[in-house]
User: Fold this.
Amino acid sequence: MIETDTGAVVLDALTGAPLWQALRHGNDRWILADNSVVVADWDSGLLIRFDPASGEEVWKYKADGELSADPAFDGERLFVNVGGTVRAIDVNTGEELWNYVTVGDFGSNPVVLDGLLFHPAFQGRVSRLDPETGEALWEWDARSGVTVRGIDLWKDVVAVRADRLNILLEGKEHPAPQDGDRLVGLNAETGAQLWAVQLVNPAVGEDAPHMPAETISTGGPLVLLHWPQTGVVESISIATGKVAWDLEVEPDQGMRLAATSSEGHVFITTHGTRSTTLSAVLASDGTVLWERTLTVADRYSTVADIPVVLGGALYVGENRSGGGNEADPDQGVLRRVDPSTGETLWTIVTRDPVWTSPVGFGDTLLVLSTDPPRGCA
Assistant:
């Protein structure tokens, strides 16, 4: 399935031939859910399931308000946030199974991690819900003035990023007290707090308190903390909350990191105003195995999304800034890298920017790129 600006096109996976097309003009998000295709229209609060083979409408669900965020899916149920109420929809029938009213929440996604359902509410709360009944199994409250930015799950520990809300004072934005910036570990079964790490800036200077660490998920047992202005990166064990190791990157206020874990390694990309790199680090002790500078046609590229490991190979989606004219246009890049050595095995340059990491389907890679005449494909 390919989502476009005007709807979606469903293709035969073997031949690439279009099977059917749905044209819509709402603020839609399309979901490929097992043997069904579902569209979620944020503005109208509408969910529609289509038969993937014929494109015929199977069921339609209309909420009594706008959808606040993308639905989550656990294989049997779709979970949506409708104006602060989490609702479970049977993917086979379109029936609403239950609803759970949150407090002060209007824009957070329900999240399914390893079959467990969580709802990180905007105003600093995380709830674990029973996906079958909607019962709140536990709720953790950060405190007033703090919002939840994201969660990770590793085995039986939930890592929650909670940080400050900016407040308006005399027409200017000021951050709330810094002690709200925390990475917290919760017991996934009970919700009990196991550990907490203050995201205190190690920099010295007047602006240091206003620059809390970025948190970067690795999709594994570690969360990375990155302070761009000092070039410090710490890895935090989700199990214990302890610093497993640290490393240094180029100090750059505009530096951004992305990472993924695979077979005891963490692959990290950095891109800033002066350089773009890809490196492999041992997850156990932080040993840097290799580091490569990413360039395309003698220019630094910027990383589009997290690196991914598919079929034993490492892939990175990138973008190369051109000279601002037709002779030297902006371009997208898909790069395949040997994960053991960092050697670039091949690159494919597209005529338009790349927006996402590639997704594997057998021997085929799918990547989202901008195609102006037809939307995104």
Observations:
- The two ends are 9 Å apart (CA to CA).
